[in-house]
Prior knowledge:
With 941 residues, the protein is of the alpha/beta class. 50% of the residues lie in helices and 12% in strands. The chain has four domains: 11-145 and 211-324, Malonyl-Coenzyme A Acyl Carrier Protein, domain 2 (3-Layer(aba) Sandwich); 146-210, Alpha-Beta Plaits (2-Layer Sandwich), CATH 3.30.70.250; 369-595, Butyryl-CoA Dehydrogenase, subunit A, domain 2, CATH 2.40.110; 599-923, Up-down Bundle (Butyryl-CoA Dehydrogenase, subunit A, domain 3). The chain is globular, with a radius of gyration of 33 Å. Residues 420, 455-458, 463-465, 494-496, 546, 553, 691, 743, 746-747, 749-750, 752-753 line the site of flavin-adenine dinucleotide.
Amino acid sequence: MSTQLNVYRQNYVFGFPGQGSDPCGALAELYQCVPEAREQIDATLAIIELQAAQYEPDPHPGLVTQVLLTHDHALPLPSGVAQLALYGAAVVLNQLLQAAGVVPALIVAQSFGEIAARVCGGVLDIAQGARAVCALNAAYRDEEGRGSMLLINLSAPATQALLDRFPERNLVLGSVNAPAQCIISGETADLEHLRAHHDGNAPPLRPIPIAYASHYPPHLEVARKLYENLQPLIPQPFHTPIYSTVLGRRYEPEDDLHHMFTRGVTQPTNLPHTLAQLPTDEHTVFIDLGVNNGLSTCIHKSLPDAQVYAPLAQPIEILRLLLTKTPLEHEAIMALRGLANGPVDAQVHAHMAKIFRDPELRPRANQSFHDGHRHTYQRLQHLMRQLPEGIHGFAQPQLLMAVASHAAINDPSLFMGCVIQQGLCIGTLLAFEQDHPHAAQWRHQLETGARLGVYALTEIGRSNSHMGACVEAVFDPQTRTFVLNTPNKAALKFANVGINNLDKMGVVFAQVTVQGQACGVFAFVLPLSDAKGPRPGVCMSSPAEIRAVPLDYGLASFDRVRLPFDAWLCDGASIDAANHFHDPLGSTDRRLIRSLFAPKNVWAMVGIGLSSVMLACATLALTHANRRTTQARIGNGTGLLAFRTQRRALFGCLATAYVMKCFANDSARLWIEGTASQASLQTTGSGDVTWTPWAAISQTLALTKALCAPAAEALATECRLRCGVAGALNLNRFADYEGMAKIYQDAGGNNRMILLDAAKVLIGQPLDEPTRPDPKGALDDAAYWQAMAHTLEYRLLKQVAEHVAQHSGEGEDDMQVWNSQLMIVARAGEAYAQRLAIQSAVQASHSLPQGLARELGSALCGMYVLEYLNKHAAWFISEGLMDIARYRALEERLDALSDFLTAHVELLIEAFGHGEATRAAIADTAPYPDALANKLQWAVG
Ligand SMILES: Cc1cc2nc3c(=O)[nH]c(=O)nc-3n(C[C@H](O)[C@H](O)[C@H](O)COP(=O)(O)OP(=O)(O)OC[C@H]3O[C@@H](n4cnc5c(N)ncnc54)[C@H](O)[C@@H]3O)c2cc1C
């Protein structure tokens, strides 16, 4: 369903549904979350209460208001109250939307909804509408309890055929709601008879909570009473056309409106037929003014291409923005938020946010390390049980990206758990489960949280241990089993094994040895521990704590553990009856690259997680600075953001977060596309592995992590410092986020090694010379930014390439040739990653709709690039690519950009902030001192 409203480009059809929905609590969230709407809601409901007090025979003062604004009531409600409440919700919504500039071009009204529709169309005012509801209630009062209606998902002919089987019963097809959804009306006894004789294989009959039959031909007396009761109301001319589903057409000025409304008492409605009469186009959005999405769902079923929005059924956040921002600001916020969401749909984000709001997923304060680790696993298992089916087997890969984003904001330890469980362990099984007898079943155990995954690759004794495992899996030809063994302390595995009495399953990387020959590094799957402790032969150390992101990291070893043949994730390799080893990949390097398939998933998750955390940090710090005033002698009483140092620092952080988010999103898209082909042997890289296998596995994904982690660490530190004591407090979360950034300098592969490998691969390929940047190019020109970034990368790479060519030719060995250049190689790798990131941000900004959103996106992108040029200014000057005047102009432009962004700080916080999901006191809507005081326990003497 569409949720992005753009009043400049769309036209709206307001849809008013009939009765039959539950109004209890329908406006409660709106009232609570949008204080700006309260006055309007109170005023509208007061009018309705007044009419109810006057025209209902048994008034319940304030009940309609309570029903709508609280969750204290439930169906069935006293006579007439549900109708007044449904009417109240519709007119409140109509008022609020129109005040926010969302004005209907057309109205479509379903039965009872015609009353609110007439208010919307200018025919009646709110009080008259309420009186019309009382008139309807009075007309039906004698019928209450005698009849009702049933919903069935069948076409009109099929529903009629069903009713024809009971000719002795007075049952009628009251409404056609959609091509395959109808409403049956009738007396209670007849409806019960129908239900009792309904075929169990046919679509079920669902009761609708209405105390009488509507659209029911025998109700001539009700129609007469209603017509009479409506007479005191004098209709005004329409200002917006109304289409009635009873008439199947729009009202004309000459129509007798009271008479037309009365027809609904005895005659059926037909929504699909009426919708077909509406003059709509591709810019039309149907807005459902009901208390749920029942009408919009039927519209969607009738017109599958229709864009629909049901404000009270979708996240309240969307409605809040719509109501509180000007249409221009709203459009900019939605566009920027859409950009930040990247490959994850807004609906998926909203669903994931709801999952993560579960208090069971929150970390507890003041736990011992040991209890904290256990609790992290409990939360991980709980999360695995809550996740939607589509995440299994990465069937909907965007779900994994959504988990990464929300888990990172919620708690880095849980994020780390998700990375190991989903990215590494499930990811490895998924890649190699084809033709394996148990891998899919093991994966299922991890997906349901029944078992916890351990990914044991790194060995502690040597640098770059990923290049060749020393743990060996020796093939025993007698039993056709493997013996897994840790030959020495240097081969101890580093992994999450510190808690040793949980049901843990290891994905352990070992050198396969057949008949004394090393055949390559493969993954083995084995149970490591259960509730009783480690399995025989498995040794697990106590946790070797990492304060930055607590998890039970420790050491593991294997003492001649006998593994069945199927513990081997052989992935097409084999050992034949004559004990000869075969690998279709043909080389141990290619096998290594292939075995280490799963870190790809980690890099995509970490890119998304860290970029979300960067946006959270930057917006938290901006929120704080924006609300905080100073007592300094200069600028006494002004906000901290008025000061240039604060402004430059914090918008510099937001700019970094923005660019990293764009880069991580593009990488996530790449990963999502790649998941489709992940099991294919053909997609295994064959590239150069020098320091690590990472660049050969996926250069772009590895570089995303290598760029995001240091950027996030610097950013979190800066934001923490810019918030003073508020930054230092754990409950404001900067320390958690900084810790997460720190550990991803190494977890998932050492970033420096990734940069070196990436640059070395590029140096081995022909280099494309970029167009020389125009030294006088405009500082806000994206072409100039890209040319500068590309030239920096190209010249560094070329410098090394020339050195390598010359010195290799002179017979120096690789160590001599490369070692003297390593600083430049690392810098070239980073320059390449920066160019990719800048390219992503330029493209993403360009995709924003023209206007404020694009201006803000470009300003953030510009701020990032100009800071980057500033940082490398000495190099650019030395290369003749920048003169002194230009260098000085950079500062001026950066100031101007931060001034522009300051003018829109609230909008940017709204677009990019994670608000309450961070649980930081700073994010609270209450003033910071109150919010902070509320988060602490007090001893009062
Ligand atoms: C929090 C955390 C969680 C982790 N979780 C897991 C896990 O679950 N499973 C797992 O298997 N592993 C895990 N790891 C291990 C991680 O993959 C490794 O730390 C990482 O790959 C680096 O290896 P290393 O620690 O052995 O460092 P080293 O390879 O020893 O590197 C140390 C330093 O030396 C530099 N260096 C190394 N070699 C060279 C060279 N040839 N030339 C120039 N410089 C060099 C590096 O840049 C680095 O700065 C985790 C690590 C951390 C920090």
